[in-house]
Protein backbone atom coordinates (compact mmCIF):
# COMPACT_ATOMS: atom_id res chain seq x y z
CA UNK A 1 0.00 0.00 0.00
CA UNK A 2 2.76 2.39 0.97
CA UNK A 3 4.41 1.88 -2.42
CA UNK A 4 1.30 3.34 -4.06
CA UNK A 5 2.29 6.85 -2.95
CA UNK A 6 4.81 9.34 -4.34
CA UNK A 7 5.34 10.94 -0.94
CA UNK A 8 8.71 12.61 -0.52
CA UNK A 9 11.03 9.93 0.81
CA UNK A 10 12.89 10.39 4.06
CA UNK A 11 9.97 12.25 5.62
CA UNK A 12 7.34 11.01 8.07
CA UNK A 13 4.18 12.68 6.80
CA UNK A 14 1.74 12.77 9.69
CA UNK A 15 -0.50 15.37 8.05
CA UNK A 16 -1.93 13.29 5.22
CA UNK A 17 -5.46 14.24 6.23
CA UNK A 18 -4.82 17.76 4.90
CA UNK A 19 -5.11 16.73 1.26
CA UNK A 20 -4.72 13.35 -0.36
CA UNK A 21 -1.55 12.31 -2.10
CA UNK A 22 -2.92 10.24 -4.99
CA UNK A 23 -2.22 6.51 -4.75
CA UNK A 24 -0.86 4.95 -7.96
CA UNK A 25 -4.18 3.38 -8.88
CA UNK A 26 -5.82 6.82 -8.69
CA UNK A 27 -3.01 8.49 -10.67
CA UNK A 28 -3.25 5.83 -13.34
CA UNK A 29 -7.03 6.21 -13.55
CA UNK A 30 -6.77 10.01 -13.79
CA UNK A 31 -4.14 9.73 -16.55
CA UNK A 32 -6.21 7.14 -18.39
CA UNK A 33 -9.26 9.43 -18.38
CA UNK A 34 -7.30 12.58 -19.10
CA UNK A 35 -5.92 11.03 -22.30
CA UNK A 36 -9.47 10.29 -23.44
CA UNK A 37 -10.66 13.85 -22.72
CA UNK A 38 -7.64 15.30 -24.53
CA UNK A 39 -8.21 13.02 -27.51
CA UNK A 40 -11.87 13.93 -27.77
CA UNK A 41 -13.41 16.43 -25.37
CA UNK A 42 -16.84 15.47 -26.70
CA UNK A 43 -16.38 12.15 -24.88
CA UNK A 44 -17.46 13.88 -21.63
CA UNK A 45 -19.53 13.05 -19.72
CA UNK A 46 -20.91 9.79 -21.10
CA UNK A 47 -18.16 8.34 -23.29
CA UNK A 48 -15.33 7.81 -20.80
CA UNK A 49 -14.06 4.48 -19.53
CA UNK A 50 -11.69 3.06 -16.95
CA UNK A 51 -9.80 -0.09 -17.98
CA UNK A 52 -12.51 -2.26 -16.40
CA UNK A 53 -15.46 -0.52 -18.05
CA UNK A 54 -17.38 2.72 -18.54
CA UNK A 55 -17.24 5.41 -15.88
CA UNK A 56 -19.32 8.52 -15.32
CA UNK A 57 -21.70 10.04 -12.79
CA UNK A 58 -23.86 6.89 -12.36
CA UNK A 59 -20.82 4.78 -11.54
CA UNK A 60 -19.37 7.44 -9.21
CA UNK A 61 -22.63 7.74 -7.29
CA UNK A 62 -23.04 3.97 -7.16
CA UNK A 63 -19.51 3.44 -5.84
CA UNK A 64 -19.93 6.12 -3.17
CA UNK A 65 -23.35 4.80 -2.15
CA UNK A 66 -21.99 1.28 -1.66
CA UNK A 67 -19.23 2.66 0.56
CA UNK A 68 -21.69 4.83 2.52
CA UNK A 69 -24.10 1.93 2.95
CA UNK A 70 -26.83 3.85 1.13
CA UNK A 71 -28.48 4.39 -2.22
CA UNK A 72 -26.97 6.07 -5.28
CA UNK A 73 -29.98 8.35 -5.70
CA UNK A 74 -29.29 9.88 -2.27
CA UNK A 75 -25.78 11.00 -3.25
CA UNK A 76 -24.94 14.38 -4.79
CA UNK A 77 -21.38 14.95 -5.98
CA UNK A 78 -19.32 18.08 -5.34
CA UNK A 79 -15.72 19.17 -5.72
CA UNK A 80 -15.01 19.59 -1.98
CA UNK A 81 -16.43 19.59 1.51
CA UNK A 82 -16.67 23.38 1.38
CA UNK A 83 -18.79 23.30 -1.77
CA UNK A 84 -21.01 20.61 -0.24
CA UNK A 85 -21.51 22.77 2.86
CA UNK A 86 -22.47 25.70 0.63
CA UNK A 87 -24.88 23.48 -1.29
CA UNK A 88 -26.56 22.45 1.93
CA UNK A 89 -26.81 25.79 3.76
CA UNK A 90 -27.85 27.74 0.67
CA UNK A 91 -30.32 25.07 -0.30
CA UNK A 92 -32.03 24.26 2.97
CA UNK A 93 -35.53 25.72 3.08
CA UNK A 94 -35.79 28.10 6.03
CA UNK A 95 -38.26 30.61 7.33
CA UNK A 96 -37.09 34.04 8.54
CA UNK A 97 -36.20 33.83 12.19
CA UNK A 98 -35.00 30.26 12.10
CA UNK A 99 -31.42 29.55 13.13
CA UNK A 100 -28.44 27.35 12.37
CA UNK A 101 -26.69 26.02 15.48
CA UNK A 102 -22.96 25.19 15.30
CA UNK A 103 -19.92 25.65 17.53
CA UNK A 104 -16.53 27.36 17.31
CA UNK A 105 -14.99 23.92 16.90
CA UNK A 106 -16.60 23.38 13.51
CA UNK A 107 -14.40 24.24 10.55
CA UNK A 108 -14.33 27.77 9.18
CA UNK A 109 -15.75 26.40 5.91
CA UNK A 110 -18.75 25.10 7.84
CA UNK A 111 -19.32 28.22 9.95
CA UNK A 112 -18.88 30.48 6.94
CA UNK A 113 -21.30 28.48 4.78
CA UNK A 114 -23.89 28.74 7.55
CA UNK A 115 -23.23 32.44 8.20
CA UNK A 116 -23.38 33.48 4.55
CA UNK A 117 -26.57 31.52 3.91
CA UNK A 118 -28.15 32.86 7.11
CA UNK A 119 -27.57 36.44 5.97
CA UNK A 120 -29.25 35.70 2.63
CA UNK A 121 -32.24 33.88 4.08
CA UNK A 122 -33.02 36.04 7.09
CA UNK A 123 -31.96 33.31 9.49
CA UNK A 124 -29.24 33.49 12.09
CA UNK A 125 -26.15 31.54 13.03
CA UNK A 126 -25.72 30.75 16.73
CA UNK A 127 -22.57 29.19 18.12
CA UNK A 128 -23.17 26.88 21.07
CA UNK A 129 -20.73 24.76 23.05
CA UNK A 130 -20.86 20.97 23.46
CA UNK A 131 -18.03 20.61 25.99
CA UNK A 132 -15.73 22.73 28.14
CA UNK A 133 -12.62 20.67 27.37
CA UNK A 134 -12.47 18.19 24.49
CA UNK A 135 -10.06 15.92 26.40
CA UNK A 136 -12.62 15.19 29.11
CA UNK A 137 -15.79 15.33 27.02
CA UNK A 138 -18.21 12.39 27.16
CA UNK A 139 -20.77 11.18 24.64
CA UNK A 140 -23.62 11.65 27.12
CA UNK A 141 -22.43 15.13 28.07
CA UNK A 142 -22.18 16.21 24.44
CA UNK A 143 -25.61 14.84 23.53
CA UNK A 144 -27.15 16.51 26.59
CA UNK A 145 -25.53 19.84 25.69
CA UNK A 146 -26.91 19.66 22.15
CA UNK A 147 -30.35 18.78 23.49
CA UNK A 148 -30.33 21.76 25.87
CA UNK A 149 -29.15 24.16 23.16
CA UNK A 150 -31.85 23.32 20.60
CA UNK A 151 -34.60 25.98 20.52
CA UNK A 152 -37.97 25.87 18.79
CA UNK A 153 -36.53 27.95 15.92
CA UNK A 154 -33.40 25.80 15.47
CA UNK A 155 -33.64 24.61 11.91
CA UNK A 156 -30.19 23.00 11.62
CA UNK A 157 -27.74 21.52 14.09
CA UNK A 158 -24.44 21.42 12.23
CA UNK A 159 -21.75 19.19 13.70
CA UNK A 160 -18.41 17.74 12.64
CA UNK A 161 -17.93 14.00 12.68
CA UNK A 162 -14.24 14.31 13.57
CA UNK A 163 -13.23 17.85 14.45
CA UNK A 164 -10.01 19.00 12.83
CA UNK A 165 -9.63 21.62 15.59
CA UNK A 166 -9.70 19.15 18.53
CA UNK A 167 -9.57 15.61 17.10
CA UNK A 168 -12.80 14.85 18.95
CA UNK A 169 -15.17 12.46 17.20
CA UNK A 170 -18.75 13.53 17.80
CA UNK A 171 -21.16 10.84 19.02
CA UNK A 172 -23.36 11.31 15.96
CA UNK A 173 -25.93 8.64 16.88
CA UNK A 174 -26.46 10.07 20.35
CA UNK A 175 -26.82 13.58 18.92
CA UNK A 176 -29.24 12.27 16.29
CA UNK A 177 -31.35 10.84 19.09
CA UNK A 178 -31.66 14.19 20.91
CA UNK A 179 -32.49 15.90 17.62
CA UNK A 180 -35.13 13.24 16.95
CA UNK A 181 -36.66 13.94 20.35
CA UNK A 182 -36.65 17.70 19.71
CA UNK A 183 -38.56 17.04 16.49
CA UNK A 184 -41.32 14.98 18.05
CA UNK A 185 -43.97 17.69 17.85
CA UNK A 186 -42.61 19.65 14.89
CA UNK A 187 -44.01 19.97 11.38
CA UNK A 188 -41.59 19.22 8.48
CA UNK A 189 -40.95 22.94 7.85
CA UNK A 190 -39.98 23.43 11.49
CA UNK A 191 -38.04 20.24 11.77
CA UNK A 192 -34.52 20.51 13.13
CA UNK A 193 -32.09 18.88 10.67
CA UNK A 194 -28.83 17.26 11.74
CA UNK A 195 -26.08 17.98 9.22
CA UNK A 196 -22.65 16.44 9.61
CA UNK A 197 -19.36 17.64 8.14
CA UNK A 198 -18.00 14.13 7.75
CA UNK A 199 -14.72 14.78 5.99
CA UNK A 200 -12.42 13.40 8.71
CA UNK A 201 -14.63 10.40 9.45
CA UNK A 202 -15.09 9.16 5.89
CA UNK A 203 -12.33 6.68 5.18
CA UNK A 204 -11.11 6.81 8.79
CA UNK A 205 -14.03 5.43 10.83
CA UNK A 206 -15.74 2.08 10.32
CA UNK A 207 -19.34 3.26 10.08
CA UNK A 208 -22.02 3.33 7.42
CA UNK A 209 -22.50 7.06 6.80
CA UNK A 210 -26.05 6.44 5.67
CA UNK A 211 -26.81 4.75 9.00
CA UNK A 212 -25.40 7.39 11.35
CA UNK A 213 -28.80 8.94 11.99
CA UNK A 214 -27.91 12.26 10.35
CA UNK A 215 -30.16 13.99 7.84
CA UNK A 216 -27.31 15.16 5.64
CA UNK A 217 -23.64 14.16 5.58
CA UNK A 218 -21.14 16.24 3.63
CA UNK A 219 -17.56 15.22 2.93
CA UNK A 220 -14.64 15.71 0.65
CA UNK A 221 -13.34 12.43 -0.71
CA UNK A 222 -9.85 13.88 -1.19
CA UNK A 223 -8.61 13.41 2.35
CA UNK A 224 -8.81 10.04 4.20
CA UNK A 225 -10.38 8.25 1.26
CA UNK A 226 -7.39 9.17 -0.98
CA UNK A 227 -9.82 10.12 -3.73
CA UNK A 228 -8.83 12.42 -6.58
CA UNK A 229 -8.24 16.00 -5.43
CA UNK A 230 -11.31 18.10 -6.11
CA UNK A 231 -13.93 15.48 -5.27
CA UNK A 232 -16.59 15.26 -2.58
CA UNK A 233 -20.14 14.27 -1.81
CA UNK A 234 -23.37 15.22 -0.11
CA UNK A 235 -25.49 12.34 1.19
CA UNK A 236 -29.12 13.28 1.84
CA UNK A 237 -31.59 11.16 3.80
CA UNK A 238 -34.51 10.50 1.43
CA UNK A 239 -37.08 12.00 3.81
CA UNK A 240 -35.37 15.41 3.89
CA UNK A 241 -34.73 15.76 0.17
CA UNK A 242 -37.79 17.96 -0.23
CA UNK A 243 -36.27 20.38 2.32
CA UNK A 244 -33.31 21.17 0.03
CA UNK A 245 -33.29 23.36 -3.08
CA UNK A 246 -30.52 23.28 -5.69
CA UNK A 247 -28.18 26.27 -5.74
CA UNK A 248 -26.39 25.55 -9.02
CA UNK A 249 -27.37 24.08 -12.34
CA UNK A 250 -26.69 20.35 -12.26
CA UNK A 251 -25.38 18.48 -15.29
CA UNK A 252 -26.27 15.12 -13.73
CA UNK A 253 -29.51 13.68 -14.97
CA UNK A 254 -31.93 11.86 -12.72
CA UNK A 255 -33.90 12.60 -9.61
CA UNK A 256 -33.07 12.11 -5.96
CA UNK A 257 -30.11 14.18 -4.79
CA UNK A 258 -28.62 14.51 -8.30
CA UNK A 259 -29.97 18.06 -8.89
CA UNK A 260 -28.01 19.25 -5.83
CA UNK A 261 -24.69 18.45 -7.56
CA UNK A 262 -23.07 21.68 -8.79
CA UNK A 263 -22.75 21.36 -12.54
CA UNK A 264 -20.76 22.82 -15.37
CA UNK A 265 -17.85 21.09 -17.02
CA UNK A 266 -15.63 19.85 -14.25
CA UNK A 267 -12.34 18.00 -13.94
CA UNK A 268 -13.96 14.82 -15.24
CA UNK A 269 -10.71 12.88 -15.17
CA UNK A 270 -10.66 13.41 -11.41
CA UNK A 271 -14.37 13.00 -10.68
CA UNK A 272 -14.74 9.84 -12.75
CA UNK A 273 -11.64 8.23 -11.21
CA UNK A 274 -13.27 8.32 -7.77
CA UNK A 275 -14.61 4.73 -7.98
CA UNK A 276 -11.00 3.53 -8.11
CA UNK A 277 -10.20 5.16 -4.75
CA UNK A 278 -13.34 3.67 -3.23
CA UNK A 279 -12.38 0.23 -4.60
CA UNK A 280 -8.92 0.55 -3.04
CA UNK A 281 -10.49 1.24 0.35
CA UNK A 282 -12.93 -1.61 -0.06
CA UNK A 283 -10.11 -3.94 -0.99
CA UNK A 284 -8.25 -2.95 2.18
CA UNK A 285 -11.47 -3.25 4.17
CA UNK A 286 -13.08 -0.35 6.00
CA UNK A 287 -12.77 -2.10 9.37
CA UNK A 288 -9.08 -2.87 8.86
CA UNK A 289 -8.34 0.69 7.78
CA UNK A 290 -10.12 2.11 10.82
CA UNK A 291 -8.42 -0.38 13.16
CA UNK A 292 -5.00 0.58 11.83
CA UNK A 293 -5.76 4.30 12.19
CA UNK A 294 -6.94 3.72 15.77
CA UNK A 295 -3.89 1.64 16.61
CA UNK A 296 -1.56 4.39 15.38
CA UNK A 297 -3.46 7.23 17.01
CA UNK A 298 -3.53 5.31 20.31
CA UNK A 299 0.25 5.04 20.07
CA UNK A 300 0.37 8.81 19.46
CA UNK A 301 -1.85 9.65 22.44
CA UNK A 302 -0.05 7.32 24.81
CA UNK A 303 3.36 8.56 23.66
CA UNK A 304 2.39 12.21 23.93
CA UNK A 305 1.00 11.75 27.43
CA UNK A 306 4.40 10.48 28.59
CA UNK A 307 6.26 13.60 27.38
CA UNK A 308 6.56 16.26 30.12
CA UNK A 309 5.08 19.60 29.10
CA UNK A 310 2.76 18.09 26.47
CA UNK A 311 -1.00 18.43 26.88
CA UNK A 312 -3.22 16.22 24.73
CA UNK A 313 -6.55 17.85 23.83
CA UNK A 314 -8.12 14.92 21.97
CA UNK A 315 -10.10 12.40 24.02
CA UNK A 316 -8.13 9.25 24.90
CA UNK A 317 -11.25 7.15 24.26
CA UNK A 318 -11.01 5.62 20.77
CA UNK A 319 -14.80 5.95 20.42
CA UNK A 320 -14.53 9.72 20.84
CA UNK A 321 -11.58 10.17 18.50
CA UNK A 322 -10.27 8.89 15.18
CA UNK A 323 -7.13 9.74 13.22
CA UNK A 324 -6.39 13.29 14.39
CA UNK A 325 -4.64 13.95 17.70
CA UNK A 326 -4.33 17.56 18.88
CA UNK A 327 -1.86 18.70 21.50
CA UNK A 328 0.13 21.63 22.90
CA UNK A 329 3.72 21.84 24.10
CA UNK A 330 4.31 24.18 27.05
CA UNK A 331 6.51 27.14 26.19
CA UNK A 332 6.22 26.69 22.43
CA UNK A 333 3.81 28.02 19.86
CA UNK A 334 2.15 25.49 17.61
CA UNK A 335 4.13 26.77 14.64
CA UNK A 336 7.37 26.32 16.60
CA UNK A 337 6.44 22.70 17.28
CA UNK A 338 5.68 22.09 13.60
CA UNK A 339 8.93 23.79 12.56
CA UNK A 340 10.96 21.79 15.08
CA UNK A 341 9.42 18.50 13.89
CA UNK A 342 10.33 19.49 10.32
CA UNK A 343 14.00 19.69 11.34
CA UNK A 344 13.64 15.97 12.15
CA UNK A 345 11.89 15.38 8.80
CA UNK A 346 8.47 14.97 10.36
CA UNK A 347 5.47 16.77 8.86
CA UNK A 348 2.87 17.89 11.39
CA UNK A 349 0.16 20.52 10.97
CA UNK A 350 -1.61 23.13 13.07
CA UNK A 351 -5.02 24.69 13.41
CA UNK A 352 -6.13 25.54 16.95
CA UNK A 353 -3.49 23.10 18.26
CA UNK A 354 -0.61 21.10 16.83
CA UNK A 355 -1.93 17.98 15.10
CA UNK A 356 -0.66 14.50 14.33
CA UNK A 357 -2.75 12.65 11.79
CA UNK A 358 -2.34 8.90 11.45
CA UNK A 359 -3.27 7.60 8.03
CA UNK A 360 -3.50 3.93 7.14
CA UNK A 361 -0.10 4.12 5.42
CA UNK A 362 1.76 5.59 8.38
CA UNK A 363 3.88 3.29 10.50
CA UNK A 364 4.60 2.86 14.23
CA UNK A 365 8.22 3.78 13.48
CA UNK A 366 7.12 7.11 11.99
CA UNK A 367 5.11 7.82 15.12
CA UNK A 368 8.18 7.07 17.25
CA UNK A 369 10.23 9.51 15.16
CA UNK A 370 7.60 12.20 15.70
CA UNK A 371 7.38 11.49 19.45
CA UNK A 372 11.19 11.58 19.77
CA UNK A 373 11.30 14.93 18.01
CA UNK A 374 8.82 16.31 20.53
CA UNK A 375 10.68 14.80 23.46
CA UNK A 376 13.83 16.59 22.17
CA UNK A 377 11.98 19.87 22.17
CA UNK A 378 10.90 19.57 25.77
CA UNK A 379 14.26 18.39 27.17
C1 LIG B 1 -13.48 19.66 9.40
C2 LIG B 1 -13.23 20.22 8.03
N1 LIG B 1 -14.27 20.57 7.28
C3 LIG B 1 -14.10 21.08 6.03
C4 LIG B 1 -12.86 21.26 5.50
C5 LIG B 1 -12.73 21.80 4.11
O1 LIG B 1 -12.53 20.69 3.27
P1 LIG B 1 -12.43 20.84 1.70
O2 LIG B 1 -11.02 21.19 1.41
O3 LIG B 1 -12.78 19.47 1.18
O4 LIG B 1 -13.37 21.89 1.27
C6 LIG B 1 -11.73 20.91 6.25
C7 LIG B 1 -10.38 21.11 5.67
O5 LIG B 1 -9.41 20.56 6.03
C8 LIG B 1 -11.92 20.38 7.55
O6 LIG B 1 -10.88 20.06 8.31
From TrEMBL:
InterPro entries: Aminotrans_V_dom, PyrdxlP-dep_Trfase, PyrdxlP-dep_Trfase_major, PyrdxlP-dep_Trfase_small
Domain of life: Bacteria
Domain Aminotransferase class V: 23-345
Pfam families named among the record's database cross-references: Aminotran_5
Keywords from the UniProt entry: Pyridoxal phosphate
The protein's name in its UniProt record: Isopenicillin epimerase
Organism, as annotated: Streptomyces subrutilus
Amino acid sequence: MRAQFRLQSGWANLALFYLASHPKVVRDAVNHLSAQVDANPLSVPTGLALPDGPTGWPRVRQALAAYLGGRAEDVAVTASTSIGLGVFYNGVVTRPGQEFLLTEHDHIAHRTAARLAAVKHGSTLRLGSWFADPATATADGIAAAVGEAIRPNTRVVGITWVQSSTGLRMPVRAVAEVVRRANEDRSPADRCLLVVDGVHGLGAVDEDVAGLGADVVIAGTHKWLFGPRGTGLVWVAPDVLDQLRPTFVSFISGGGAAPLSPGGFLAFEHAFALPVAVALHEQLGRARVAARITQLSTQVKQGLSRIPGVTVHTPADAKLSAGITCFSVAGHTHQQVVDHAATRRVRLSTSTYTRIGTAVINTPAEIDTALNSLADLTR
